[in-house]
Task: inverse folding
């Protein structure tokens, strides 16, 4: 089986109606089902009762008019985003994703980067 690799910069992130490209440096998308094990007369049954998704993205700081600013505005408003993370090999999407955190840091060389984490229901297509 061939392995497919996609560079982080090749991912696009869409928040609401705005698309941001070429700035993802790393990230994680996790989909964790909650499985309940029940003992029945016919044996053991497993049922999925919930599906929790989290997304974390590290990206290049794009000043006050880009992704960082949009996330800060969303945090202040307390409203969810429509989120899409797309690459050449697939797309993760969520209709109502909440920002859990958004941080900006600067290293000794003066390079500014950001980290953001989201929670909500995300599906892969």
Result:
């Amino acid at each position: 089986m061939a392995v497919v690799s996609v560079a982080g910069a090749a991912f696009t992130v869409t928040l609401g109606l705005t698309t941001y490209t070429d700035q993802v440096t790393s990230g994680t998308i996790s989909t964790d089902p909650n499985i309940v094990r029940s003992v029945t007369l016919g044996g053991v049954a497993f049922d999925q009762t919930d599906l929790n998704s989290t997304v974390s993205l590290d990206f290049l700081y794009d000043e006050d008019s880009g992704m960082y600013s949009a996330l800060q505005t969303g945090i202040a408003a307390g409203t969810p985003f429509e989120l899409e993370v797309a690459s050449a090999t697939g797309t993760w999407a969520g209709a109502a994703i909440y920002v859990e955190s958004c941080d900006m840091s600067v290293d000794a060389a003066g390079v500014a980067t950001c980290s953001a984490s989201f929670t909500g229901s995300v599906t892969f297509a």
User: Anything to note?
Assistant: The first strand starts at residue 12 and ends at 15. The chain has one helix and eight strands.
